[in-house]
Amino acid sequence: MLQSVRIKPGEQLNISSGKYLIESIIGTGGFGTVFKASKNKKYYAIKLNRIWELLPGDREDIIQRIKQEFEISHSIQSSHIVYTYSYDEIHGNPILVMDYCSDGSLRKKIGIDHSVESINNLAIQILNGLSILHSFQIVHRDIKPENILFDSKIAKLTDFGISTNLNNRLTQTNIRGHALKIFATLAYSPPEQSQKSKAYTLTGPTNDIYSFGIIMYELITKGYLPFGKVRNLETDARKIEENKINGKWDTVSLKKNIKEDYWINIIRKCIYPDPDKRFQQIDDIIHILTRHQPNLLNEKSEWKLMILEGLEKGKTYNLSKLSQYKNKKILTIGRYDREDPFVNDILSFRYRYLNGKAVQVRLQADHVKYDKNYHINPSGGRFVQFKYTWENNDFLVDFDTGKNIGLEIYENYTFNRFELDWEEYFANPLFKNHAFSVRLQAGYIDRPVDDFFYLWAGGLLGMKGYSYFSIGGTRKFISSFTYRFPLFENIDWQIWNDAEFMGHWSIPTWRRNCNHRWEIIL
């Protein structure tokens, strides 16, 4: 049940990731409060989202966006992304535990003099963070000085509350594809982000590139904004949006504060009103900056390998440093090899989850009455099938984390499986072509096994091992009754050229040759 939550400095907070001592309040804004907390002599930032203050109709959408914020900042590991350790809810209010950034936000650096080298270094760090996000198909959509934090002089992007994953959009649209809600910070968002007719279709990396241009303009000019200050939201908003759409911005203030033409050109191309005329990817800006200052701390200047899926999703290998350390120009990736443990420089986690063999004997008797409805509505006889299967399986249970790191650990399951399927068919003497059947299904596995090998009662065919699709176990007994009757009979017309049609069959008779099949399957 949703309730208000009060957290005070000096209190202890006990959540899924541990016990934290609340040290102080870092800041409050919107519907969130951020605290400085400590655990095991390390500092963390804890963000409490005050959902109880929101209108009931807005709460579900905001909670979904906070969960998305956690998924983004928890799954991406980068020195330029604030990492989130855990997501919890206290009385219905989401709470996040994140990296603590001791040096504040970019806002503290605006309004003071910076050398060109310092400006370039700040810019390249912000660009590295955006580049990582965009590589995961994520657009931040709220890049502003308050959402760029610093820890030991390293810039980190934070607050992914209105970010969007281009592969999994949360934005709701109407039947014309227009966004029902728009999220934007007026001073830093591109013009299309404030227009419902364009906000959804034009969402992409160029949104963040536009915002990057605005914050760099503000940093260089010591606090000015290219389209004007937002002093009064009601009176200034329309004028600023008009300037954005028409591309009218203050070039004079920029030229007064920086002599380097490449920065003027970068900002001009970042804040074009037409997204197609902006830089299309972050690497284009990085290339310009590193060309003018080659010694920039640029993650892109090193070769790296990032795992996008699988057990190590989000892990990054620095190939440049690994190559230097091993004194090799060619690095190899592969599975652990017992005979030559060091043959591969990076171990992959490709694996087999099952190595098995089976021998099956199947006995089947088909004594079903043969008539024109034989396949869809049998009215007499029986079908009986018995199967015996001997199985020997090595099933994956874990990976070695010791000397043979990455090597699969298997558990053997050798067992006997017995299965019986018996169905009797009957005609209803009171109604023509009405029939019913009684079916018995039974099974037995003679020893305990992993649920992957269970006998399944119902569920989807071919989905064994996924227990949420049906009920499973080592013993099975199911009886069922089915009643069948025709909806249409003697359909004697043709739907398309190759269609078969019925209506010219003989009187139902017993088939003379009952089908007995004896099979041994190896």
Q: What does the model show?
A:
By secondary structure, this protein is of the alpha+beta class. The chain has four domains: 12-99, Phosphorylase Kinase, domain 1 (2-Layer Sandwich), CATH 3.30.200; 106-301, Transferase(Phosphotransferase) domain 1 (Transferase(Phosphotransferase), domain 1, Orthogonal Bundle), CATH 1.10.510; 307-350, no CATH class; 357-521, no CATH class. It contains nine helices and 22 strands. The chain has helices at residues 56-75, 116-135, 196-199, 205-220, 233-246, 251-257, 261-270, 282-292, 319-326, and strands at 12-15, 18-29, 32-39, 42-49, 84-90, 93-99, 138-139, 148-151, 154-157, 164-165, 304-306, 316-318, 333-334, 346-347, 354-368, 381-399, 408-427, 435-445, 455-457, 471-473, 475-484, 515-521. The chain has a six-stranded antiparallel beta sheet, covered by helices on one side. β16 and β17 form a beta hairpin. The chain is elongated. The two termini are 59 Å apart. Residues 169-180 and 496-522 have low confidence and may be disordered.
Overall SS class: alpha+beta
What proportion of the residues form beta strands (DSSP E)? 25-35%
Proportion in helices: 10-25%
The beta-strand count equals 22
CATH architecture of the largest domain: Orthogonal Bundle
The DSSP helix count reads 9
Q: Major sheet, described briefly? A: 6 strands, antiparallel
- CATH top level of the largest domain is Mainly Alpha
- The gyration radius over C-alpha positions equals 33 Å
Q: What is the CATH topology of the largest domain?
A: Transferase(Phosphotransferase), domain 1
